[in-house]
Amino acid sequence: MVSNPCLCQNGGDGLRVIRTFGVAFRGLWSYPVRTWLALLGITISTLLVVFLLAVLFNFKNSLVGQIQNVGVQQIVVMPGKLLNSGKNISEVNLSSLLSYTSVTSTLTYQDAIDVKAQIPEVAGAAPQLETVTRIAGAGKSAEVMYTGTMPDLANMYSLELEEGRFFTEEEAVQEESVIVLGQTIKQLLYGESSAIGSKVKIKGIDFEVVGVLKEKQLIGFTFNERAYTGYPLAANTANLQNASMLFFEAQSPEGLEAVRQEIAKVITKNHGGVQDFGLMAPEGALHVIDTIGNLVTAIALGITGVSFLVSGLGIMNVMLLTVKERTREIGIRKSVGAEWWDILLQFLLEAAYISVLGCVLGLAGSYGLLHLLHSFFPVLTTLFPLQWVAGCLLFCVALGLLFGIIPAVKALRIKPIDALRYE
């Protein structure tokens, strides 16, 4: 195909530039198969990188949002410790965090009671132990996470009830056989019927159902497959005396570090001066999420970014073939007065067209896949920041210009007399 040779003879420089855009577009689609293959490379590269970044970003955003929704006044005590470190989790880097070692739990119900009694700044305390067992009721049975705790847990995690109530402090202390079912367990046993007042059997004991929780889950944790009863009764029936973890809620977010230190002192004293546990407040969890998120993102970018290099080489290969096949056209344009920048701009624009269009298709595919993933995992958000779109488009323009410069320079070096002889 030979473009209009009079392009450079008519109008001013502005009109010539505008016409060059059209010439570049027509020239590019003179070879549709080759163009689509180059487009496919950029599209796949953009799709991989942007979709992966979007998933990581939204996963991190979901975690942070859920932690913030729970509140910033919670302190969690877990079995384990940072080896050879006097720091808490929120103060360490990732390499130190990897030295966090879990140990057999020595946490107890009494630890939680003593902390709440001795530290005025602690508004709530909820020890928790758990074991997987079977629950039977209404002629059906299911596996359940049998969980012992105290009523303060419901306030800490904003557990809402679909029907009934949560058990009381008095019921827990007196080991009354009352239980609160998670939504999944209730549906498995009772379907759409009310469960309040009915009896379920766990560990050979008949429990009265006093409440059913609304559906609620956090990433990596669900309340729906659990059945909650008082800690003392659960400890005795499950033959578990040590808590899996302790939950505390401070009166206010101010001075949270001081409260954490006081909690550590009380529990350490109970354990004979040994701190065989770790404490984590929301900022500690956010620190861990941010550290791991940044590391995974960097690794992902390094791996998927190679695909952009391969796609750029594909663009350069396509453009080199284009220059070779259009040698005669280039000679005609130069012979009728085309300036060097006319030729340079045309081939740079062709490379930029490929990269930008491929980027747009990749962004659209990433957005669609993110929403498709959300339909399977509703807990994952679907944020797609506009700055990503702008940044990706700018990057792809730069990529097209970078890998289009060599073919464009090659076109500039073609002498008109040699080009006119070219067959």
UniProtKB/TrEMBL annotation:
**Where do the ABC3 transporter permease C-terminal domain residues begin and end?**
303-416
Give the way it sits in the membrane.
Multi-pass membrane protein
Locations listed in the record: Cell membrane
- Does this entry carry the keyword Iron? no
An MF annotation (GO) of this entry: transmembrane transporter activity
User: What keywords are annotated for this sequence in UniProt?
Assistant: Cell membrane, Membrane, Transmembrane, Transmembrane helix
The terms describing its cellular component in GO are:
plasma membrane
Origin, by domain of life? Bacteria
Q: Give the transmembrane ranges.
A: 36-59, 295-322, 343-368, 388-409
InterPro entries in the record, alphabetically?
ABC3_permease_C (IPR003838), MacB_PCD (IPR025857), Macrolide_Exporter_MacB (IPR050250)
Domain MacB-like periplasmic core: where?
Answer: 35-265
Pfam families xrefs: FtsX, MacB_PCD
Name the family.
Belongs to the ABC-4 integral membrane protein family.
Identify this protein by name: ABC transporter permease
Q: What is the protein's species of origin?
A: Paenibacillus contaminans
